[in-house]
């Protein structure tokens, strides 16, 4: 018979690990590429959808409109995004990646893939086959439950 756990204790342990891991990852991204995490999130979202309004980006990223606006402004000052009038809404402009934004995002992603490839190879020597796949399934299920169906 399996080990008995207090209800919620296993997921609490997951979040206890995810919090510091996320913060360390954010610091690494910001230090390595000089790109604030909010700007990175905006660039990633725009790469996936093409153009969006700040409120739509906020909903997609589960971040406040104000934080997204500051990140869009920062990315705009760096020449990585541009805004244009939105025919559907006078006050909410459309935001899109510039060619420079596409390039800097590609460069950051390439550098991350190299680093993550090294880390993954190291982890594979210490984990059972399929552990990373199982981890990804759990995190995707949590994401679906928490982001798509908040309580």
From TrEMBL:
Coiled-coil region(s): none
InterPro entries for the chain: HTH_MarR-typ, MarR/SlyA-like, WH-like_DNA-bd_sf, WH_DNA-bd_sf
Domain HTH marR-type intervals: 36-92
Gene3D superfamilies per record: Winged helix-like DNA-binding domain superfamily/Winged helix DNA-binding domain
SUPFAM superfamilies: Winged helix' DNA-binding domain (SSF46785)
PANTHER family xrefs: MARR FAMILY REGULATORY PROTEIN, TRANSCRIPTIONAL REGULATOR, MARR FAMILY
UniProt protein name: MarR family transcriptional regulator
Provenance organism: Actinomycetospora straminea
Organism ancestry: Bacteria, Bacillati, Actinomycetota, Actinomycetes, Pseudonocardiales
């Amino acid at each position: 018979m399996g080990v008995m756990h207090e209800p919620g204790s296993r997921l609490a342990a997951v979040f206890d690990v995810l919090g510091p891991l996320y913060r360390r990852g954010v610091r690494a991204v910001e230090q390595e590429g000089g790109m604030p995490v909010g700007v990175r999130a905006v660039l990633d979202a725009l790469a996936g959808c093409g153009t969006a309004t700040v409120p739509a980006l906020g909903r997609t990223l589960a971040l406040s409109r104000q934080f997204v606006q500051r990140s869009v402004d920062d990315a705009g000052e760096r020449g990585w995004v541009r805004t244009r009038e939105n025919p559907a809404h006078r006050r909410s402009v459309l935001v899109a990646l510039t060619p420079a934004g596409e390039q800097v995002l590609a460069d950051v992603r390439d550098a991350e893939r190299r680093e993550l490839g090294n880390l993954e190879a190291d982890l594979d020597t210490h984990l059972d086959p399929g552990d990373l796949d199982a981890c990804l399934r759990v995190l995707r299920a949590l994401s679906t439950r928490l982001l798509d169906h908040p309580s």
